[in-house]
Amino acid sequence: MNPHLDKLHPYPFEKLRRLFEGVTPNPEYQPISLGIGEPKHPTPAFIQKALAHNLQGMATYPTTHGSDPLRSAIANWIEHRYGVELDAATQVLPVNGSREALFGIAHCVIDGARPGALVMCPNPFYQIYEGAAYLSGAAPWFVNSDPARNFGCDYGSVPADVWPNVQLMYICSPGNPTGATLSMDDWKQVFELSDRYGFVIAADECYSEIYHGGSAPLGALEAARELGRAGGDNPYANLVVFSSLSKRSNVPGMRSGFVAGNAAIVKKFLLYRTYCGGAMSPPVQAASVAAWSDESHVVENRNKYREKFSLVTPLLKEVMDVELPDAGFYLWADVRGSGLSDEEFARRLYAEYNVTVLPGSYLARDAHGINPGTGRIRMALVAEIDEGLEAAQRIVQFCKDL
């Protein structure tokens, strides 16, 4: 067996299952889960129709490169959203959901012949980053998020002797679970570090279309273009961006996303995925073309989240330290004022009010003396508005009962 498998941690939801073992939730309440970030808003009918009307495509093998219409639809969306022009043939690659691609990119770019390879990750983080690091033969190096920096990572705090071993950096903006976004100054710092040390940047932007202010979050490709990195002999050097339809269009079961950016990396990643069998099915490709080509459903979806957050956040602020995030559909709340640990809070809330939340310590690792998730909970406001509001009211009552 691959010995690297022994380095993998249980997934957060497995830890949650163990935490809830032996607990019988209060039967007076219907269950409400804020634990998993699975969109619950309805899938738009036109996407379902596009999928159903192209089932004849199941009779053919798809190419890993994807269809010309799909790559063009993605490139057009990137240009519309970020003002970035990409070559759909060489700088865009459809993938079966960003999770698969975020995992695979480490196997593509990590040079196992170089001892001591590191993959830099934010902390807390999406656990796929850590697993990808270990199974590619590297090790994760965590940079803790800082509440004083709006949960941003201070890359200036990384010791100088760490950087030469970094081969891949995962960046999640908007962040999971914090909702924090990178500024232009942040991207400038990251690009300069990449230029100096030669590591690849994997920018996870799956939550980019759910934002709560007036301005859309700055994208990595957009920042690179503004900083003059779109031209020359190696456009978007060392940068690839990952995005998905799951949150944007409420189709998590369709498993559809893309990788875009530096053509040399995309070319190698295409080669890697050709061997993995990572081709997207033709019906899903057709439905994805429809989804990437429409913005009205995205605006409607975003407005639902904005309404939900505007109702829920003030209620929860009465009993815990929580703020409206920059973007995403999570609330990252500090519950230390309750006198309970994050695990105790989640377990008792489930037992007494039948509401599931995720302990923050499950989403982070002990690094540099602390676990930055300790004492926090992640709440995924993915259900419809009425259910989200009901969950918030139960949490408020739970806290008042303590």
Largest sheet, order of strands side by side?
2-9-8-7-6-3-4-5
Q: Any idea what the CATH superfamily of the largest domain is called?
A: Type I PLP-dependent aspartate aminotransferase-like (Major domain)
C-alpha termini separation: 48 Å
Shape: globular
Q: What is the correct CATH architecture of the largest domain?
A: 3-Layer(aba) Sandwich
Number of helices: 13
Q: Any idea what the radius of gyration is?
A: 21 Å
Helix content: 25-40%
The CATH topology name of the largest domain reads Aspartate Aminotransferase, domain 2
Whole-number total of structural domains: 2
CATH class of the largest domain: Alpha Beta
Order of SSEs: HEHHEHEHEEEHEHEHEHHHEHEEEH
Give me the count of strands.
13
Share of residues in strands: 5-15%
Mean pLDDT: 97
Biggest sheet statistics:
8 strands, mixed
Residue runs with pLDDT of under 50 for 5 or more positions:
none
Structural class: alpha/beta
